[in-house]
Amino acid sequence: MNKIILEVRAGTGGDEASIFASDLVRMYQRFAESKGWKFSALDSSVSSAGGVKTFIAQITDPKGNDIYNLLKQESGVHRVQRVPSTERAGRIHTSTASVAIMPVVEAKEVNISPSDLEVSTFRSSGPGGQNVNKVETAVRILHKPSGIVVSSQAGRSQLANKEAAMEIIRSKLYERQIEEEQVKMGKLRRDQIGGAERAEKIRTYNFPNDRITDHRIGKKWHNIEKILEGEMGPIVKAFQKLEKK
Questions:
Q1: How would you classify the pairing of strands 201-206 and 3-10?
Q2: pLDDT of 242
Q3: Which of 61, 125, 163, 210 is packed most tightly, with the most Cβ within 10 A?
Q4: Percent of the chain's residues with pLDDT above 70
């Protein structure tokens, strides 16, 4: 699948969690750019500290390569241990952010009845929440049976935002279908599923020791700053090697 939905949400840790979520967004965006992929923000909300509370984007490889299988291991709860810039006593804080990588699926793969949808429109907002458009081009869709709510406001038209929001809903519903099938088969692996209920921490970014540890495969990497600047190739390759075994 050459098109995915990236969703990053700040977890526990207040403002520091939102700043860490911003770090993760930047890491994925710069990694995508280094690969020549198209990175399109669909929706976001920010904290009072300027960090990301929620961020949703679509990533596409114009060459048609399967980027879902390349990045699916990023789904899970990421944990950071560092001294926040606002910490005067120099104490190390632990914060989290969740990441979901979901494939963009075709409409025929997920059956959605129009009567199950509640669509509303609103004005797009910029940083700080101020309205930036006089026309209600932003779209919010509620899928009533599942309770999934998705907003999209990056597009220039109401139609474009509605289509983007529907892609996210289809991806989330498709993911739930896979999860339900895995539960029935007794093969559920929560660290590979992008649901918001995941509690297991898959990776820790320890700044005092300049070390990133992936708890699923027991691998460690150094140079945290470079990796967060998008040089996450070694992490991706480590999982590729495991899949080839």
A1: unpaired
A2: 83
A3: 61
A4: 86
